[in-house]
Write a structure and sequence with these properties.
globular, 7 helices, mainly alpha, single chain
């Protein structure tokens, strides 16, 4: 029996939605040169991101790097920050350093983390949080 096609085709609950990305030319060129094509690797990164994000936050939490006060300071420092891809992982330590209060130890801890982990923290700190305590618990380990 042939599979129906077109508007009458049944939708699968696990069907992927088609997403179109507008990549700057230098990013497209990088994917073409480095990854052998711009579409497969982009899909890989987009699909892998949730697991990478969650595992990075879990590693930070399990390492016990940040206290509740540290997490609150990061949230406050990045409140209203518009993240830009070119600065990924480079804003959080500077924003915390520029914020009100004494955060030298926190900045030192942040500066020890890899840029990818800092980018995850930037996304965490700028994400909407309906439940503050649950949001803090994603990174607080001490």
């Amino acid at each position: 029996m042939a599979t129906p096609r077109g508007p009458g085709r049944p939708k699968s609950s696990n069907a992927k939605k088609l997403t179109s990305l507008r990549l700057p030319p230098q990013v497209r060129d990088w994917y073409d040169k480095t990854m052998g094509g711009k579409y497969g690797p982009v899909a890989y990164v987009v699909e892998a991101w949730p697991a990478l994000y969650e595992s990075t936050l879990a590693a930070i939490r399990e390492a016990g790097i940040f206290s509740r006060q540290d997490a609150l300071a990061m949230l406050q420092a990045l409140q209203g920050t518009l993240l830009t891809p070119g600065m990924a992982g480079q804003q959080i330590a500077a924003d915390v350093a520029d914020s009100e209060g004494e955060h030298a130890e926190l900045v030192a801890e942040l500066e020890q983390l890899p840029r990818a982990a800092l980018a995850v923290l930037e996304l965490w700190a700028t994400a909407p949080a309906e439940d503050l305590e649950a949001h803090l618990a994603l990174v607080v380990g001490r």
